[in-house]
From TrEMBL:
Gene3D superfamilies: P-loop containing nucleotide triphosphate hydrolases. It comes from the Bacteria. It holds the Pfam family Rv3660c_N. Residues 10-112 form the Rv3660c-like CheY-like N-terminal domain. This is Septum site determining protein. SUPFAM superfamilies: P-loop containing nucleoside triphosphate hydrolases.
Amino acid sequence: MPVLLLTRSGPVHDAVVPLCAAAGVEVEVGGDPALCLATWSRAELVLVGVDLAEQVVALAPPRRPDVHVVGLSPADTVFRAAVAIGATSVVDLPDAAPWLVEALADVGERASPGRTVGVVGGAGGAGATTLACALAQWHALRAPTLLVDADPLGAGVDRLLGMEERPGVRWEGLADTAGRLGARALREGVPRRDHLGVLTWSGLQRRLDVPTARRILPSAARGHDLVVLDLARQDPCLGELVERCDDLLVVTPTTVPALAATARLVATLGREADAGLVVRPGALGDADAERVTGLPVVASVADQRGLSAAVDRGLGPLTGRGPLARAARSLLEAA
């Protein structure tokens, strides 16, 4: 049962049930809390009407997340009952109806967030964006995936994937919004092609709005099996974005200048756990790359024939069974 509403109040019922219907989620309405204890534990979201809050306190149901007390202009005394049952908030309807709509939008989504993988170039022109696109394309064949363009000065991941004409919200549009964004709303709002969604910019003047990113990334992880962040190596907020990643892939050619630049980047991040090197052909070997950077080599990607032509045709970098496809498979299946 997605939503449990405990109330005998007609006004509370009439305020909440239509919102559930509009969100497309099933709601069970119970007027006797004692008969709803089984559903209390199973429901994804529990809404306790102010009229039954004291009765719920007397029953002492097990503590659980996602419990809210709802009512029309609730009295101050109800806050004591809300604390007693472990409610997260007291929702004043109809003023707080938009907040409740957003909470309902996430009902039915995953209970735990999806995996977030960051990809950053250890040196300029390392091919990090190409790898990020390949990872997203490969996983999108299997499950909902979001590719987040966090490189304001890049070409745009939508262009590499041939999705620049797809309708949907971009960073600029999200920066103009406020409050919590539902996972489903984000997943359905960004430009998509089948299971693959992209979040990038629409104009030439771009700036990653950090407060917006803080709001969006948790929703992205709740609504997708995999979120891939294409990171900018010289962005001031790189460190914060990296901390939001479950895994970090640092892409570098195995040349002396590239490895020197990569070592400096790794030192500034201060993160070695869950981070690995993806190396491209150069004069040095994997052992040299690991010694210089302090990171393990987790994949090696050879040059892919016809890559530029595939991108120019709007197919994206993942074509056939080339080096990028093999690397994407090994990197995502290994975790």
